[in-house]
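Incident log, support desk, overnight shift.

02:14 A customer reports that sequence design results differ from what the structure should imply. Their input is reproduced verbatim below. On-call engineer (initials T.W.) acknowledged and began investigating.
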């Protein structure tokens, strides 16, 4: 009890200090004043950083070298975020992450490593009909009830997770039939969580944006395929104008906004151009994610997949932009060296679809667990994360993948997914999901994976050797540390899962 009171007091002091610092930064009038004040702020935060001091030291070093992310921070605080949005971002991401460290450490002592985040798709209903969208393959219907969503979020909080991604379908199309509640109600209730919502952007009208601005803990990431031509070709005529208007309204309301792009063979050159990213920055977009087209969903077509050469050029451009442009970007395939390979299977994230199936990844439509069945058995997210299927994928990644520029168990190392599905008896979560692991698509992926490995392996070896190290961060050390952590965490969690299974079997006897 005393410890909880002490933690609560520490949290309040930290929040007060953070809000004071943010206000001072937001009120600076020019770049020189901002950087001078920022230096003072970083020194003040260092006292509260605790075990996160090494990370903050990297931030301080980046600041001293005027890294573009310091300009990014200035744009956020001075020009893009409202007071509500910046304080909610700081509290939920920084304050709560620091003060929740003990909870995560306790779970680690119990043999459980909390993922960074996970994705929930409350509905597959959508007002658009984009070709290649995986959501089309799931059965239609309401999806998850509000009560189920609420329980999922509560369980996430108990595990120390403070960031959730909502996908679909179209999330802003979701409304619970029984209560009439939507995602705004969910975010308002759980205002100590931060939600990123992947959206097609067409339902972000002024009223919806006004509601988002009031709560401050939701960041829409609007899907696009490039510029107007590419976006309207895939998403429908007039979509570009609608999302362009939504972006202007989001900026005026001070709401954090991002983008997401599915990279195909057709748009790869466009979305890896300087013109494209400069346009994003000019439209006050603060973050974004690149996804590789995966041949699943509505009329899967391997000819839409970007070539290995296009993936290589995309990596070069994104890594270059990070050192030059004031925008945060992630590439879930090319960033394998930075995050320890594939993050799926509960290592860093997983997916719950609209039927409650717990999938290793939003693109891996196989499962061994359903959240509703787990609840009936007195279990939950923790048991799903330690499922034999998830652990099998992670184990095979350790055994079979020594090139983290080819991290994906679906298209880069396809034998990993095939073997794990067979070994664990994973069921397809919709009709046709098995086409990714058999037949013509599987044969294509075998050839694709070989070509990609031959192309990228020499580059990854350079990264391991330190040729990509910089004065701010040494990628070779990041890779070395992640290799060790991946192995240690898997060993501990495999042992924990085995002990729990043995204990349950003994109780049954």
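02:41 Re-run completed on a clean worker. Output:
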């Amino acid at each position: 009890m005393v410890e909880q009171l002490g933690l609560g007091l520490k949290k309040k002091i930290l929040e007060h200090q953070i809000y004071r610092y943010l206000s001072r930064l937001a009120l600076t009038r020019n770049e020189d004043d901002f950087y001078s004040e920022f230096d003072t702020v970083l020194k003040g935060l260092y006292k509260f950083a605790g075990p996160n001091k090494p990370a903050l030291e990297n931030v301080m070093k980046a600041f001293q070298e005027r890294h573009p992310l310091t300009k990014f921070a200035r744009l956020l605080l001075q020009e893009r975020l409202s007071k509500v949005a910046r304080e909610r971002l700081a509290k939920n991401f920084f304050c709560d992450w620091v003060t929740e460290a003990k909870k995560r450490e306790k779970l680690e002592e119990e043999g459980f490593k909390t993922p960074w985040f996970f994705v929930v798709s409350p509905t597959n209903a959508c007002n658009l009909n984009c070709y290649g969208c995986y959501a089309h393959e799931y059965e239609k219907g309401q999806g998850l009830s509000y009560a189920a969503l609420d329980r999922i979020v509560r369980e996430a909080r108990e595990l120390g997770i403070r960031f959730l991604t909502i996908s679909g379908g179209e999330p802003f199309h979701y409304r619970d039939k029984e209560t009439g509640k939507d995602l705004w109600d969910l975010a308002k209730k759980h205002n100590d969580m931060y939600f990123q919502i992947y959206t097609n952007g067409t339902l972000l009208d002024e009223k919806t944006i006004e509601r988002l601005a009031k709560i401050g803990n939701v960041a829409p990431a609007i899907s696009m395929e490039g510029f107007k031509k590419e976006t309207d070709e895939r998403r429908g005529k007039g979509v570009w104008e609608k999302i362009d208007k939504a972006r202007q309204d989001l900026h005026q309301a001070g709401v954090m906004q991002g983008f997401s792009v599915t990279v195909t063979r057709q748009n790869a050159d466009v979305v890896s151009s300087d013109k494209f990213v400069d346009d994003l920055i000019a439209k006050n977009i603060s973050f974004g994610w690149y996804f590789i087209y995966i041949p699943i969903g509505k009329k899967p077509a391997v000819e839409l997949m970007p070539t290995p050469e296009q993936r290589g050029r995309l990596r070069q451009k994104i890594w270059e932009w990070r050192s030059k442009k004031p925008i945060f970007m992630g590439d879930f395939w090319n960033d394998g060296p930075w995050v320890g390979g594939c993050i799926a299977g509960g290592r860093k994230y997983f997916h719950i679809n609209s039927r409650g199936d717990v999938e290793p990844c939003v693109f891996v439509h196989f499962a061994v667990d359903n959240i509703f069945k787990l609840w009936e058995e007195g279990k939950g997210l923790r048991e799903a994360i330690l499922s034999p299927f998830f652990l099998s994928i992670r184990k095979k990644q350790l055994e079979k993948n020594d090139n983290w520029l080819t991290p994906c168990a679906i298209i880069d190392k396809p034998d990993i997914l095939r073997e794990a599905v067979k070994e664990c008896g994973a069921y397809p979560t919709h009709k046709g999901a098995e086409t990714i692991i058999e037949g013509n698509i599987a044969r294509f992926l075998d050839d694709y994976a070989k070509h990609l490995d031959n192309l990228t392996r020499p580059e990854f070896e350079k990264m391991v050797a330190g040729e990509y190290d910089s004065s701010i961060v040494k990628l070779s050390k990041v890779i070395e540390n992640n290799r060790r952590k991946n192995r240690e965490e898997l060993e501990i969690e495999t042992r924990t899962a085995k002990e729990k299974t043995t204990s349950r079997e003994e109780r049954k006897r």
